[in-house]
Amino acid sequence: MTIKQVLNASFSLSISALFCATVSATNIDETIQTNTPEQTHADEHHDEHHDEHHHEEDSIEKIQVRANRLGRIVSHSPTRIEIINGEEIQEKALMRPGNISMLVAETGGVRVQTTSPAMGNANIRLQSMYGRYTQLLSDGLPLYGGQTPSIGLMQIPPTDLATVEIIKGSASSMYGGSALGGVINLISRQPKDEFEGEVLLNLTSKQGQDLTAYFASPLTDSISASVTAGVHHQQTQDLDKDGWIDIAGYERVVARPRFYWSGDNGENLYLTIGTMYEDRTGGTLPGQLLPDGTSYEQLLQTQRNDVGFVFDKAFMDNYTFSLRGSAMRQDDDHSYGTTIEIDSHQSSLIEASVSGYSDNIDWVIGTAIQSDSFTSETFSEFDYQYDVPGIFAKVDYALTDEISSSVSARRDWHSEYGNQLSPRISLLYHPENWSIRGAFGKGFFAPTPFIEDIDAAGLSKLEPLTNVEEERATTAAIDATYIVGSLETGLTLFESNIEKATELQTLPPALTSDKGVRIVNSPAETTIKGSELLVRYRWHDVKFTGSYLYTDTSKLDLTSIEQRPIALTPEHSAGAIIMWEQHGKGLLGFEAYYTGTQLLENNPYRSKSKAYWHLGLLGQITLGNVSWFINAENLLNVRQTKIDPLVLPAQAPSGVWTTDIWSRNDGFTVNAGVRVQFGH
Predict the structure, then answer these.
(1) Which residues 6+ apart lie within 8 Å of 259 measured at CB?
(2) Where along the chain is composition biased (Basic and acidic residues) (predicted)?
(3) Backbone angles phi, psi at 69, to 5 degrees
(4) Which residue, of 316, 318, 363, 590, has the fewest CB within 10 Å?
């Protein structure tokens, strides 16, 4: 029986069972839980310490975070950390239960960029920095790799998430070179004192099905556990009937158990094990041909397994020892037409740290060893093994009740690129209803063959990397937030300067042989600057969120040797959400997102994209512990292939057969389903 048949059978049986079952009237209260065991001690300190030194604030700001390493409350942390809370996660899970792309894409200053139109791969760009610079973490662990493969974003369900933490700008001072552009930390739900769980079934008008489940329970007085599982199917879709698959088909199975242990002497242990298998299909449909008269089927089989742990122990009242580690292996079998690529990504981390606090100072110091490797059976010349031992330290100091600072630095000894120093400093001025922050940081990134421009084509047309140096960036930002009553406003100004950014360069025809492109360092600085505007307002059961992002970018074009904007980077983008919600009854929401024009590269149909709107409607009715939902996406039926073909007239030197995705490519889509919750 196929995954699709399992989903259809499960959906039918569940619907029948729901109508026959007695509906519980128990209301499932949503709670925001952001901390894994290592933060328990720090959180108790900050609850007490900051209540003594700061005014009481709206509960929306009383959220403690882990990404800053010290468990501070969001509004009291000198490091700006944006939070996607549990309420937003639950809403976005109804729109796209299969992956977290929509969850992060609808956050201001965050853009999910498709890197492979054939397979649907995508990465996350923070404030228009390249997606390869974004470190994706799960409970503070790099479970998806030091450099997360672009397909990884599309394989992580939001089912078990409690919150998401986002740091924009270089975070290399605490997380190493993979966090040159920022960090996205996915925080999982923790088991409560009683059994709880949920099952979600979803169907889409584009022949997609999702079945996800989450269960959590205490096992003993000191041990609790949770498990998340999902089965997902998508049928291939050729929306413009040109023989090329516009929406890749896939079958995917995901499972992740988690275990939590608390000892009698202040010890805490968190352990997680994850596995994922996916079979994905794109390219030409069977029997269909490209302009050169050949077929080009793209296939990708992915198997990922990972394990991670966090152990901490409080000692001498004011100190905590923490030990964390993770290991990940991802095996991929690619088919690019007649070319087969079989490869493996491996990553591991072991880190030990000690943290402490006094009246005005919080600090952490630690050491870590990060390893990342790539092995290809087909193109072994691209194999690499990076071993990176390092030390790091961070100090947060409260100068007064209103002024605090954070200084952090990391020294890495990279096996390929030598000694690297990554500093960061942040300042916070927090009078009454204002929070004004400034941040400045530096970091580095170790180049690999897997830049955005090569993701859709594989390695067959790429020259082996030679004389490529590390990429370095300086990031700075200043932001101001004002909260009064139910109104929150924020303005951020940011700038990033990247030195030696790696880019894809087309080889001269006389030198190509069987290779068409190579990766080189840009000889000129790449500059990204802009501003973000955010407005949030709540009136009774209605909440409004509005955001605007302006971006001004400049990079050297290697062909014309002149400065041009970065491709696929809109100068103007904006969004607005209006949501009515009553817990235990239902919700109704409308969203509108605007994406401005973008510079395009290697596109024979146009050099600049068109601006477009994305509109959506979401509705949910809750009866006891059962919720029925329906969601309509892309109400204007925007689709890039309505304007230009996706397939190129001839294969590009890199090996790709498509233009980049600069717009929507899925058209109007409706999904609907049911969520059943258990426990209290």
Answers:
(1) 223, 224, 225, 269, 270, 271, 272
(2) 40-60
(3) 75, -10
(4) 316
Q: Cα–Cα distance between 271 and 194 in angstroms, integer?
A: 20
CATH classification for the domain delimited by 74-114+141-678, as one of 2.40.10.10, 3.40.50.1220, 3.40.50.720, 2.40.170.20 = 2.40.170.20
- Take residue 549 and report the two structure tokens written for it: 């992002």
Domain boundaries, the chain: 74-114+141-678
Q: What is the CA radius of gyration of the chain?
A: 24
DSSP letter for 103, please: H
Q: What is the pTM of this model?
A: 0.90
The predicted model gives 38-48 an average pLDDT of 43
Task: Map residue 232 onto helix, strand or coil.
Answer: strand
Per-residue model confidence as pLDDT tens digits over 114-142: 999 999 999 999 999 999 999 999 999 99
Q: What's the CA gap between 93 and 161, in Å, rounded?
A: 10
- Residue 292, by phi and psi: left (phi above 0), alpha (psi -120 to 50) or beta? alpha
Whether residue 411 has pLDDT greater than 70: yes
> Whose CA is closest to 163, among 21, 65, 282?
65
Q: What are phi and psi of 98, to 5 degrees?
A: -85, -25
Task: Please report the pLDDT score of residue 153 as a whole number.
Answer: 86
Amino acid identity of residue 565, one-letter, is P
User: In this structure, what token pair is assigned to residue 348?
Assistant: 């591991």
